[in-house]
Each structure stands twice: as C-alpha cells, then as structure tokens.
C-alpha cells in the first residue's frame, strides 16, 4: 500500500487490512497496519513507524513534528505528540 498525499479523498483512512504502508515516491517502508488506528482526521493515523529510519522528523512546534520519508524526503504529514489512542502515545 502506498501512503498517499491527501487531495480530497484519502482511500486508506478507513482501510484496516493487514499490510505495510510505503512511501508513494520510493516505496520505502513507513508504517505497519498493526500500528494503525481509527481517528477523526481525514488521513490514516498510526502510533509508530516500522523502523527508526522509516521517517525523518523536524520539530515545528512543541507538540508537532513535520514528517518526511526517511529515504527520499517526500512530505508525509506530521507527528502529533501525545495525540494517539492512549495517553503518552503520539499520532502520525
């Protein structure tokens, strides 16, 4: 599954079949369906990356990081600190 950018119709938001989400530009492994959870945002939500080098993060605010593909630098969205499904868990 490729991680798609949002253009008004994100197809993987409500997709919960087992699998791996990869960068839409270079197929670098990003997220596992095991870390995916239902969220009110229009994008898929994950609690963790597959590997530490799956993404590169740059701090934007005290509670948000800009997230890029760890291989090609494609923009993926944000990590929101402490906004996951459980207390103390972040949301990608």
TrEMBL record:
Cofactor(s) required for function per UniProt: Zn(2+)
The keyword Oxidoreductase is assigned to this record: yes
InterPro entries (UniProt xref): Met_Sox_Rdtase_MsrB_dom, MsrB_Met_sulfoxide_reductase, Mss4-like_sf
One Gene Ontology term of the molecular function aspect: L-methionine-(R)-S-oxide reductase activity
GO biological-process terms attached to the record: innate immune response; protein repair
A Pfam cross-reference name: SelR
Cellular component annotations (GO), alphabetically ordered: cytoskeleton; nucleus
Keywords of the record: Cytoplasm, Cytoskeleton, Immunity, Innate immunity, Metal-binding, Nucleus, Oxidoreductase, Selenocysteine, Zinc
Subcellular location: Cytoplasm, Cytoskeleton; Nucleus
Reactions that this protein is recorded to catalyse: [thioredoxin]-disulfide + L-methionine + H2O = L-methionine (R)-S-oxide + [thioredoxin]-dithiol; L-methionyl-[protein] + [thioredoxin]-disulfide + H2O = L-methionyl-(R)-S-oxide-[protein] + [thioredoxin]-dithiol
Domain MsrB residues, every copy: 1-92
Family: Belongs to the MsrB Met sulfoxide reductase family.
Function: Methionine-sulfoxide reductase that specifically reduces methionine (R)-sulfoxide back to methionine. While in many cases, methionine oxidation is the result of random oxidation following oxidative stress, methionine oxidation is also a post-translational modification that takes place on specific residue. Acts as a regulator of actin assembly by reducing methionine (R)-sulfoxide mediated by MICALs (MICAL1, MICAL2 or MICAL3) on actin, thereby promoting filament repolymerization. Plays a role in innate immunity by reducing oxidized actin, leading to actin repolymerization in macrophages.
Name of the protein: Methionine sulfoxide reductase B1b
């Amino acid at each position: 599954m490729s991680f798609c950018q949002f253009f008004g119709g994100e197809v993987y938001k409500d997709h919960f079949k087992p699998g791996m989400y990869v960068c839409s530009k270079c197929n670098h492994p990003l997220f596992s369906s095991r870390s995916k959870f239902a969220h009110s945002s229009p994008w898929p939500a994950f609690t963790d990356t597959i590997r530490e080098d799956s993404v590169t993060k740059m701090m934007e605010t005290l509670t948000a990081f800009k997230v890029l593909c760890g291989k090609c630098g494609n923009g993926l969205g944000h990590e929101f600190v402490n906004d996951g499904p459980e207390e103390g868990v972040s949301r990608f």
